[in-house]
Fold this protein.
Amino acid sequence: MSDDQYTIRPATPDDLDAVLALRREAEQWLADNGIRQWTADYDEYAVGVLTAWVEGGSAWVVEHDGQVVATASLNAEPDPDFWGWLQIAHEATALYLGKMIVRRDHAGLKLGDAIMNWACGRVKAAGRTWLRLDVRRDNRRLQHYYVSRGFRWMGTRVPLPPRVTESGWLGQRNGGQTTQCPITLIEIEPSPSARRARDPATSRRR
Ligand SMILES: CC(C)(COP(=O)(O)OP(=O)(O)OC[C@H]1O[C@@H](n2cnc3c(N)ncnc32)[C@H](O)[C@@H]1OP(=O)(O)O)[C@@H](O)C(=O)NCCC(=O)NCCS
């Protein structure tokens, strides 16, 4: 595989440290840039969610030159606090994108666009219609980022206690829609040994 190619594959438990490192680097970048998102009070929650998603098989990693340089999760089930107002039949017409992070030394290459284009392909392959996501309610800049990439605002929800979250701006993009991007992710399988390690029947790591 040539050095300029970017691949995407399901994350395995062996990738958890790399995924958490991406998260921590993003937290630092957000703080350095005065963006109130993924602040320290969410740390424990975030580690729990990322760990569950890696172990549950919904987290993906993007690799370049043998290194994990980005991650995102794609869930078939919606977060009911955000999408529960939709009828169940409509909830099931989408895949839900979350926790998208690009390593800072790869930022600006449109890897985010490439991940969203890949995710739209998965939406179509799953016979679904929409790619959906939620964004922090007060982060206009990030909302604009998604709107400029074809997402339509579907409403803003404030989950009821005990859930504490600043997220709730909801967007969706048609799975048939892609945006221009110099990078096309090549989807690959994890290696056979990683697949075995990921199989809950053969492994109970962490
Ligand atoms: C969003 C992200 C994956 C996009 O990666 P990318 O394709 O390499 O694109 P960039 O990093 O150049 O970001 C695109 C623009 O969005 C802005 N942006 C990225 N994350 C942002 C955030 N959380 N809040 C506000 N603006 C953000 C960038 O500053 C950049 O703005 P610019 O075009 O004016 O320079 C990456 O920026 C990232 O990891 N951000 C931090 C984590 C995050 O917020 N993820 C989304 C969670 S819903």
In short: Residues 26, 30, 35, 37, 100-102, 107-113, 135, 139, 141-142, 145 surround coenzyme A (CB under 6 Å). The two ends are 32 Å apart (CA to CA). Residues 144 and 151 are 9 Å apart (CA to CA).
